[in-house]
From TrEMBL:
Cofactor(s) demanded: Zn(2+)
Pfam families, sorted: ADH_N, ADH_zinc_N
Annotated protein name in UniProt: NAD(P)-dependent alcohol dehydrogenase
Membership in a protein family: Belongs to the zinc-containing alcohol dehydrogenase family.
Source organism (scientific name): Streptomyces millisiae
PROSITE patterns: ADH_ZINC
Record domain Enoyl reductase (ER): where: 10-361
Length: 363
């Protein structure tokens, strides 16, 4: 079928809306008409690698829409269902069977290869393949092919614009807090970076009842938003000693911290600021190399660990977040700015500049 998609041909050239051919769903696939799609840093961070290997690519991995068609082998999803699309996992490997699908042994092939698992392309243009299947969806398009392992059925009245980022960004931030860090009422929590991931983590830490909620962020408007959302302190990293400021705001250092920036110097400061026996979780894509103070880690019993997709099982965790949202305890609406898909390049610029926290593209 002929669809419209935001195609990326090179990192520096932006996205263009173009017509591409999308395969009909195979027996294990689900055709979704996309209503909205969140713009995530990962889309921008990885596209150069995919275009270098495969050429033109359709990205997007926070899609939400309505099911139009399902393959004969699909169970539990029906035409007309409203759905959120998340990451893919094989559901068969040891990690998946242990309840850790975010670390699926076949994750790279399922989510980042630009092809189906069998190597076939889902999209074409002029007879030539277009890289797709990004996170098992490529939802920067009017339609996407997905699978039962990355589809979450939501209520018929769900606001698809609001729920779309639950597929990755909001799931990552909230999950890192609620599934991994799990701060208690006496916890001091600090998050570095107040984008969509960082502010959803702040909201989750507030849900968990952490005693202090500190946000480190260079953009003044985002610090102001963090304060409105419940931060007990905000820190401008350009204003002085970040480690000292965070320790002061948490009465000696956070017991729980999250880095969303992926910047090695920020991660190193976050680890130094931790209270003894504190834990830092890192979720940002950044430089591969990082220098930490080994003596500080060992002598103070500190922990630094990575986290993908909030260690979440989307079919279980996303409904929990939807319940929190319905109860007014996870007001992610305040993080979202909507753009038409025709404005995708402006949305990218606004996100990079800090003018927008979480862009959501709508058809």
């Amino acid at each position: 079928m002929r669809i419209t998609a935001a195609v990326s041909r090179a990192t520096e050239s932006g996205f263009t809306l173009e017509t591409v051919e999308l395969d009909p769903p195979r027996e294990d696939e689900i055709l979704v008409r996309i209503a909205a799609g969140g713009l995530c840093h990962t889309d921008l961070a990885i596209r150069s690698a995919i275009t270098a290997e495969h050429g033109p690519v359709v990205l997007g991995h926070e899609g939400a829409g309505v099911v139009e068609e399902v393959g004969d082998a699909v169970a539990g999803v029906s035409p007309g269902d409203r759905v959120i699309l998340s990451y893919r996992s094989c559901r068969r490997c040891g990690r998946c069977l242990a309840g850790r699908p975010a670390y699926c042994e076949d994750s790279m092939r399922l989510n980042n290869s630009g092809r189906r698992v069998d190597g076939s392309a889902t999209m074409r243009q002029g007879g030539a393949p277009v890289a797709g299947s990004f996170f098992g969806q490529s939802s920067f398009a009017t339609h996407a092919l997905a699978s039962t392992d990355n589809v979450v059925v939501v209520a018929p009245d769900a606001d698809l614009t609001t729920v779309a980022p639950l597929g990755c960004g909001f799931q990552t931030g909230a999950g890192a807090v609620l599934n991994v860090l799990r701060p208690g009422p006496d916890a001091g929590f600090a998050v570095y970076g107040a984008g969509g991931v960082g502010l959803s983590a702040l909201l989750a830490a507030k849900v968990a009842g952490a005693a202090s909620l500190v946000v480190v962020e260079p953009v003044a408007e985002r610090r102001a938003l963090a304060t409105r959302l419940g931060a007990t302190a905000v820190v401008d990293p350009a204003a002085g000693d970040v480690v000292a400021a965070v320790r002061e705001a948490t009465d000696g250092g956070p017991t729980h911290a999250l880095d969303t920036t992926g910047i090695p110097s920020v991660v190193a400061d976050a680890a130094r600021a931790l209270a003894p026996t504190g834990t830092l979780v890192v979720v940002g894509l950044g430089d591969a190399q990082l220098t930490l103070d080994l003596q500080d880690l060992m002598l103070n019993g500190k922990t630094v660990r990575g986290c993908i997709e909030g260690d979440a099982v989307p079919q279980r965790f996303i409904p929990e977040l939807l319940d929190l949202h319905a109860a007014g305890r996870f007001p992610v609406d305040e993080l979202i700015t909507t753009y038409s898909f025709a404005e995708i390049n402006r949305a990218v610029d606004d996100q990079r500049s800090g003018r927008t926290v979480k862009p959501v593209l709508v058809w």
